[in-house]
Write a structure and sequence with these properties.
The protein is of the alpha/beta class. It is built from 16 helices and 19 strands.
Length: 510
């Protein structure tokens, strides 16, 4: 028995040592995958330089790379796969300055970590821009001897590149033409886009090209190829790219689906149909050049969605177009507006966007919350006016059922909503007299107040919060718009009694 116990103990020790070795190996592999995977060799560096391409160095002045890796190190690692496909290639290295600093005296006064570029005929130059993949990629492509247009011999080369980049464009031409010079100039104008060219008949056949030449643009978001038939001029190409990169949203469900994933910020241009013709071109123009971490959304507003849109994004429906940045975080949906928030005219939009993004990224802007002022003094009547800041406080103080009617303030349509409010106020008195216990009643203008935590709620809805401890996620929504006073009374009493019955049955089962 003692021997078997001792043997079991030894086998357990061996298993623990094996697990320790495996964990160590996985840690080393994981570390190598998050930085450049091979050790730096100066001999290899000199040999690679003979090919005439560029060389990208991630330089650290540390014994071991930090964990987690520096954001720029992760960006450089991801870009290393793309830059190897350039012609000539841009090869990436990770350099420990403590060990190899004597080889690079030009970096002796450089602060670390640093991302630097050099080539056979170009001195060392280090990146000092923002820690964003699109900016770093554009910086690499702007270096001398870095490729702007990549030759494609086999279709698989383009397929591989378009899976790695946000936007990739290929110009397929069977015969060499002067348009290739124009294509090169376009590539220099839009460094965030990967440009390719192919004179291979096999590539043309693969993409079903029937004419002598054609241009295809790939957007990674939908993995489709879009043909371009316009002129090879900056203004035409920019407009096409902008329309390709900007999502147009008109339905409230589309807004809600955007924020399923946490952390992606969106730049919105809110417009109406009548002013979108003038406002959108300037917004589209930012598409090909904007920070890749931001996604552009244009939102033509319709009157029937005005309440829900203003609720979610805090805009003034009567004064558009306007710019907003919206981002879902762990603390909820946050919104930012420009320092000088005003109605824009078409020529201003492009410059305003650049200033807005710069202020937002620098942390100079703070999220805002849309709400009216709370009513002063004691309000008469059974139905209380609710504003954005008083919603949760009101619900928390109510132990009984609470009924909240949403309405809108839309210029030219005031009479309709005044009628809805009037019918609800008259119905509240009859419901209170006929129902077995007390009920709380409230009204809220969703075009002027943000109902934080409730999401997007359309006007003309009755929100029913059950008795007991209130929760912003525990409510039922019913349509009341268009109902008379008597119909409202009948519908609400039916809802209250049905919900009461459900609660009694559930309580008895427990």
């Amino acid at each position: 028995s003692t021997q078997s116990t001792w043997g079991l103990f030894l086998s357990q020790m061996r298993l623990n040592r094996l697990l320790l070795v495996l964990v160590t190996l996985l840690s080393v592999v994981g570390l190598s995958l998050t930085t450049f995977s091979d050790r730096f060799s100066y001999k290899r560096f000199v040999r690679d330089r003979k090919f005439g391409g560029g060389q990208l160095l991630w330089v650290e002045n540390a014994t071991l790379p930090p964990i987690p890796p520096h954001p720029l190190a992760q960006i450089a690692y991801r870009l290393s796969f793309r830059t190897l496909l350039y012609h000539p290639p841009v090869i990436s290295y990770r350099v420990n300055f403590r060990r190899h600093g004597k080889r690079f005296p030009e970096l002796s006064k450089q602060s670390f970590p640093a991302l630097c570029y050099t080539s056979k005929e170009v001195p060392m130059h280090c990146y000092n821009g923002p820690e964003e993949e699109g900016e770093v990629a554009a910086w690499i492509k702007s270096r001398p001897y870095a490729s702007f247009v990549r030759d494609v011999v086999h279709h698989a080369e383009f397929e591989q590149m378009r899976q790695m980049t946000e936007v990739a464009a290929i110009y397929i031409t069977i015969e060499k033409t002067n348009d290739q010079v124009a294509w090169e100039n376009l590539a220099r104008s839009f460094p965030a886009v990967e440009f390719h060219i192919s004179t291979s008949s096999d590539v043309a056949q693969y993409f079903n090209l029937t004419s002598d030449s054609g241009i295809l643009i790939s957007r990674r978001r939908d993995r489709t190829l879009h043909p371009y038939t316009g002129e090879l001029k900056r203004e035409h190409f920019e407009k096409f790219l902008g329309r390709l990169l900007v999502n147009e949203v008109v339905e409230i469900d589309e807004y809600q689906s955007m924020f399923m994933n946490t952390g992606v910020p969106y730049l919105f241009l809110h417009t109406t149909e009548k002013d979108s013709v003038e406002a959108l071109p300037g917004f589209y123009a930012m598409g090909p050049t904007i920070d890749r971490e931001l996604r552009l959304i244009s939102a033509p507003l319709d009157v029937k969605y005005a309440g829900a849109l203003t609720l979610s994004f805090g805009i003034d429906f009567a004064s558009v177009p306007r710019l907003r940045i919206v981002q879902k975080t762990m603390d909820g949906l946050l919104k930012w507006r420009p320092k000088h928030d005003r109605m824009l005219i078409a020529p201003e939009i492009r410059s305003e966007i650049a200033v807005f993004i710069k202020d937002w990224k620098s942390g100079e802007l703070f999220p805002y919350f849309e709400t009216e002022e709370e009513p002063s003094g004691v309000t008469s009547g059974m139905v209380k006016k609710i504003v954005g800041t008083s919603l949760w406080r009101t619900l928390s103080s109510e132990e009984s059922d609470y009924l909240l009617l949403t309405y809108a303030h839309i210029e030219g349509d005031e009479g309709r909503w005044d009628g809805v409010k009037f019918n609800f106020e008259r119905a509240a008195a009859e419901i209170d007299a006929q129902f077995e216990r007390r009920v709380g009643f409230g009204l809220v203008d969703v075009t002027r107040n943000e109902l934080y935590g409730l999401g997007a709620v359309l006007p003309g809805r009755l929100l029913h919060f059950p008795p007991g401890e209130k929760s912003l996620s525990d409510y039922r929504s019913y349509q009341l718009d268009g109902l008379s006073t008597g119909e409202i009374v009948e519908k609400v009493l039916s809802i209250l009694r049905r919900e009461d019955k459900k609660r009694r049955v559930k309580k008895e089962e427990l």
